[in-house]
Specification:
By secondary structure, the protein is α/β, with parallel strands linked by helices. Helices cover 50% and strands 12% of the residues. The chain contains seven helices and five strands; from the N terminus they run βαβααβαβααβα. Bound molecules: shikimate-3-phosphate. Shikimate-3-phosphate binds next to loops.
């Protein structure tokens, strides 16, 4: 696959698929720095994501997200966890693909529903009420064309975090 050790590893996928926790584990296994895009946005803005959405709207959040992508994409040899909507933007997708190998994590919609149940954390899903599962399925379908740009996809539904990390390492023939 031509993986270069200097390349970044970029985790993409829907909310609740485990990008942050698996990213941390993968980075520590590889001895690389880990960067979580959402955390960087929150740190730079000095606000939590729900606050950014509530006070400034989604458009502003997406601008902050793109600025964070531009900065992070210039780094090398790191593991990056993106937000669920990051790759909807063509320029974000292009920059992230250019700076590393892209892995899309997937999980069954019902499992995503369960994992994202806590209110107040994910503004895109909040307010869905009884239709939240339908919203998840609809957004998943809308985002599929972007997620499918990844170099490969791993379904995390039935695997342990360690199994998933090992699988990613194997696919890239990374040193563990
Ligand atoms: C979003 C996903 C979130 C965060 C923001 C928007 C989305 O990240 O970036 O709430 O549009 O899917 P996670 O995927 O880490 O929850």
């Amino acid at each position: 696959m031509g993986f270069d050790m200097k390349d970044n590893i970029v985790l993409i996928g829907f909310m609740g698929v485990g990008k942050t926790s698996l990213g941390k584990l993968l980075a520590s296994k590889l001895g690389r720095p880990f960067v979580d895009l959402d955390e960087k946005i929150e740190r730079d803005a000095n606000m939590k994501i729900p606050e950014i959405f509530a006070n400034h709207g989604e458009k502003y959040f997406r601008e902050l997200e793109s600025a964070a992508v531009r900065e992070i994409a210039s780094r090398r040899n790191i593991v990056i966890a993106t937000g669920g909507g990051t790759v909807k933007d063509a320029e974000n997708l292009r920059l992230l693909k250019e700076c590393g190998f892209m892995v899309c994590l997937t999980t069954a919609p019902e499992e995503i529903f369960r994992r994202t149940e806590r209110k107040g954390e994910r503004p895109v899903l909040d307010g869905g009420g009884a239709e939240r599962l339908e919203t998840i399925k609809k957004l998943l379908a809308e985002r599929q064309p972007f997620y499918s740009q990844a170099d490969f996809e791993i379904d995390t539904t039935d695997w342990s975090p360690l199994q998933i990390v090992n699988e990613i390492c194997d696919r890239f023939k990374l040193q563990r």
